[in-house]
Amino acid sequence: MINKKKFGMLALVVVTILLLSSLVSCGPAATEEPTVEPGPIEPAPTEAPPEPEEPEPEEETSIVILLPDDPPNFNGNLIFSGYDRIAQEMVLLSLAELDPEGNAYPELAAELPTEENGGVVIDEDAWTMDVTWKLRDDVYWEDGEPVTADDVTFTWNAAMDPETGIWTPGADYTDSIEVIDDYTFVIHYNSVYPAYLYQMSMAHGFTVWPEHYCDAEQGYSYWDCHMDPLANGPYLLEEWEHGDHLTFVRNPNYFEEGKPYIDKVYFQIVPEESVQKTMMAEGVADVNFWAREDFALELDELEFIDVSPSPVTRWLMQLWINLTARGAADPVGSPHPVFGDVRVRQAMRIAIDVDSIVQGIYPSGDFHNVWTQFFRPPYNICDTPKPVVDPEAAEALLTEAGWTDTDGDGVRECHGCATGAPEGYPMAFDFIVWSEGGEDYVRTGQLIAEYLQAIGMDPSLRLETGAVLWDLDGLELTGNFDMNMWDDGYPGTDPSDYLWVYYASSAVPTAELEGWNIMYWMNEEFDALLDESYTVDEEYRKELFCQMDEIMQAEMPTIPLYDYAELTIYNNRIEGIRSTVNAMVNWNIADWKIVK
Amino acid sequence: MTRYIIRRLVQAIPMMFLVSIVLFVLVHVTPGGPLTGLAGQRRIRPEKAAQLKRQFGLDQPITVQYLVWLVGNDWMKVDADGDGIKESYGTRTGILRGDFGISFKTRNPALVEITRRLPNTIYLMSITLLVVAIVAIPIGIISAIKQYSFFDIFVTTASFMGQAIPEFWLGLILILVFFAWLNNPITGEPLFPPGGMKTLGADFSLWDRVHHLILPVTMGMVGWVAWYSRFLRSSMLDVIHQDYIRTARAKGVAERTVQFKHALKNAAIPLVTILALDLPYIFSGSLYVEILFSWPGMGRLYYNSAVGRDYPILLAILIISAGLMILSNLLADIAYGILDPRIRYE
């Protein structure tokens, strides 16, 4: 027989535990205590004579921005999640930023250093460069301390610490930073570095951190201040309920007088895309960035919703082709059995009807057929002819390259092909699409596979995650792939580093991990032109890049497909939202206004 | 009983050790790595990758990584700055001393990340379980007592539907109906919020919390109610047909006493066992509910750390879950012994 007392006790204990655990989470939200006092620069309140009739206090304005995931922290330079950068943009400033068109503008800097204003001095003999930055003297941290040159050097030195820092663009070219006075410092470069203007910008998640607040002992990657930042930007972090929301309130001491206009900004974490869409449609959320094409088109039909595409594109979808036999790392001695012959790559280029793919899958018009790496201003001036889709010519090229279908199975085989593949080797290969790219990537991959099948190739389409593709021991760096499809791009206007990482002969994967030339494409002429391009003479760079483009068109190390704009869906009660590929959508949040 | 509990706890130690090895190896041999899985980012710059690999300790052989994870590295010298010289002692103390490592993603201790999410999951899951028990137990009892009645047939049908409905689809339908379609006739606002734990910017209110709980609890409970009620019905039916129940009835004991005192108490024993085995869900959460209703709980933390290969958090959740599973098994055995005096653990 069951002991009644024991049963009762057990039930009581279980119920009590359940209720207690519920109450633990039911309490009011834990608001992080402000660690600092409000800054002294706020003008002291003056006593005014009492008004007979006080005006109605203005209603607090607020907006809700949807984020699919929590920001890991407020330092977007550590990893690129985007959510860290959008949070960082709210509270911290960089030296200079890039607008949506790619033009640099000063933020903490009083002006942009150029050769004309003496801010940039190039030593033509040593080919080194000194850049003098002057800071604004009216920018303060939220505790009232001024933002100084010491903060800049503190941040840079912390980031460069080999133990706790992180590699950041420009690191290889920067020798040292010399402080001249509180608001002036000089960066000494060991080479001419064309992208100096946005080396310390949100394009790379690089903002200046306060020396007096962040703990240098903890180190750049680990310090507590990147979870609870001391702001100098337009907003202050008021509350962060991890995984649920972040609340920002306007910084009353922001250096641009009267800005920001909106009192409160909420970042609401909503992981599911369809829920995000429903919330936008119901008007309970205001901004949804990195929006899906189909959602944007659908929501744009609503009267109160607008969509902002970025005026300049960045992301270029490409086919990344392995020119060397799997794992061989030698495109000359052991070329890839199929792709080792340039005629095969050229045949693929004219067999794929990119226009049809773009028009079929992306009807918004924000996706464009792109056939060159130099599609972005100011270097989109090369007169590179658009490839003409011609499947018959593609087939003729393959036949000329020694690939014919003799057994009638629809797949060509090697019969005297130039790649060294054995006689009868079928034109079969793996075609991997980055799975996190989503449904549109898969559809693009399927269409490309069909175009290639139509000319007698046999791609085996499959999906892989970024973690499998791009890990240090992943498929690409170990050379265990044939052809992959994913997109990449660079912020700002300078493609030099981007080109080096992917296309320089010295950037082929090695144990030292110097680059990402996973195609093992090596061209000495291209290398020489790339070296030359490290100059600030823009006209000369244009000339060089066009020469490089000619080589790439002829060699086809990768096959560019299309670029696309970033789309932001927003409630049009807000004015001032402009999508950008050079920073996060809130790059100009201080200018956003509620107009309805 | 005390000796039995101690013996079981001691037996759990080698078990946990073995589990830790299996989990560690499984997590590390899964294709892909943490350097490019962080938030689905595109490929990482090699210079950065090399630095991160060293900072995360991924440049060491897997055996050394396991050792460091288990017992720390504060007793051995490490090359912290990548110059090839092991110049200083490490800072990790290992899970045996409560250090589950630093999250690759946030650079916070894994335990800090877990403790941020755990209360939210306990809050949601314990209430869900409580509601499940409140709803499923009476349904199971009535179904058994009124076997083949309209109520029984209706509940049986509903139970099969409840078990068959995909949880994710159900959640989407709930949001569509109760957030997008139906409005509060007085305020004109959506009947229920689409997610989150509370209204943004609003002061604390118990009703607001309850309001945000209703849809996620509904989504989470449907499958469970169906399963528990069916289980209790079967268990009750087994007991009702036992000889001692027939004897009680023959002796003229009131039907209510027969059903609740004699039948239910014995029928509830297997249910209590199942409940105890389900207790680890209170720690691990429900992934679909948390994703759909934007609930900041352990399920999402686990999913994100698995996708991003955030090994410290992933392993912390897995090893704690494994420990809780072992403990809940023990708890189930103990509860069994308490509820059924015929069982003796000697």
Topology:
The complex is a heterodimer of chains A (596) and B (346).
Chain A: H1 4-26, E1 62-67, H2 83-91, E2 96-98, E3 104-106, E4 120-123, E5 128-134, H3 149-160, E6 174-181, E7 184-189, E8 235-241, E9 245-250, E10 264-269, H4 273-282, E11 287-288, H5 293-299, E12 305-309, E13 315-321, H6 342-351, H7 354-361, E14 367-369, H8 391-400, E15 403-404, E16 413-414, E17 428-434, H9 439-454, E18 458-464, H10 466-470, E19 483-488, H11 496-503, H12 524-532, H13 538-555, E20 558-564, E21 567-571, E22 574-575, E23 593-594
Parallel strand pairs in A: 1-10, 1-11, 17-18, 17-19
Antiparallel strand pairs in A: 2-3, 4-5, 5-7, 6-7, 8-9, 9-10, 11-21, 12-21, 13-19, 13-20, 14-20, 15-16, 22-23
Helix pairs in contact in A: 6-8, 12-13
Chain B: H1 2-29, H2 34-37, H3 46-55, H4 62-71, E1 77-78, E2 88-89, H5 110-145, H6 150-164, H7 167-181, H8 206-240, H9 243-250, H10 255-278, H11 281-284, H12 287-292, H13 298-307, H14 311-339
Antiparallel strand pairs in B: 1-2
Helix pairs in contact in B: 1-14, 5-6, 5-8, 5-14, 6-8, 7-8, 8-10, 10-14, 13-14
